[in-house]
Amino acid sequence: MSVTEAQSPAALDKEDERRLYRKEMxxxxxYIGPFPVVMALWGFSNLLCWFALWPLVIFDVxxxxxxxxxxxxxxxxxxxxSHEAQHSNYANPGTPLRxxxxxxGYVSTIPLVLPFKIARYTHMRHHKHxxxxxxxxxYEVIAPTWQQAVLKxxxxxxxxxxxxYGVVLSENADDPAAKRAGLEGMVQSLAYWGILGALAWxxxxxEAAFLWWVPRMLGTIYISLFLSWWPHxxxxxxxxYRNTRSFSHKLGNIVAFGMEDHIIHHLHPxxxxxxxKAAFRELRPILEARGCRLEDHYS
Amino acid sequence: MELLKAIYPWGPVLFGIGFxxxxxxxxxxxxxxxxxxxxxxxxxxxxxxxTWGLIAKFGGRWI
Lengths: 299, 63
What we know:
The complex is a heterodimer. By secondary structure, chain A is mainly alpha-helical.
């Protein structure tokens, strides 16, 4: 599949371009700024819920199958609060609440075992090179249908499949940030496998499998499908206004984790997820004028 | 670090023995499957988990 570079497919002269840009930024500014309380609460409450499942299941307060369903939801839900932290949306470097930004980034993805520094390092590259077959670390998710995207994610989990995030880190081995991310990632992965093994050999193998190991695989598939495949499909265009689309999912925006308006995130990554829908509605005329990919939306 | 680099390629085998073996034993016990050939459940788990890990290591895939 060929990838084309399209900065703004609508034919706009320079004056129109500047006018639209100013309008876009004025609207976006209204939604960027206040501390994203919703996302912070989401991150901590989701993590607490997942931690609480362990004693609840081990002491037979709830059956394992109920814990399994909730844990799977917890894993799927844990990425997005960390995603805000990757963009420093809770607090910028050098500000008093920076520690909170980093704390949310680190702890919210414990159920997913996604090391924060690796997530941030690779995600910034995804934004910089969205849909670039060679440089976008998320490009691997490309598939013609969502069902094939699911199968591809399962293939990508196999030990013989090169890990695209690992490839990015090794290609940037001289970068201290990549080195640090790789080290933290290794420690976190070893801790995960060590804890799973320790639980299993202590008589909690079923709990380890159905509260963490299987939910993590299912959550990874869900996140990959809704956060990577759906908003960027078919991944054949690059450029600020064409590399991401808006779409309407049959099961709604909540099931799609708010990704129907992912185009807003790529245009304004500093805007928290819970404000994307309102911003999308207000920005829509500008996006239409820009020739953005507003697919499946019927106005 | 060198030690980690050396054992990393054997991850699937270690996972088969370190996690899948007790998990298989626990599943056998919980659904009442008797181990064949007078083996215990954990012995069966170690054989199945270890073999599966070797297949994953050399074949590049679990499934």
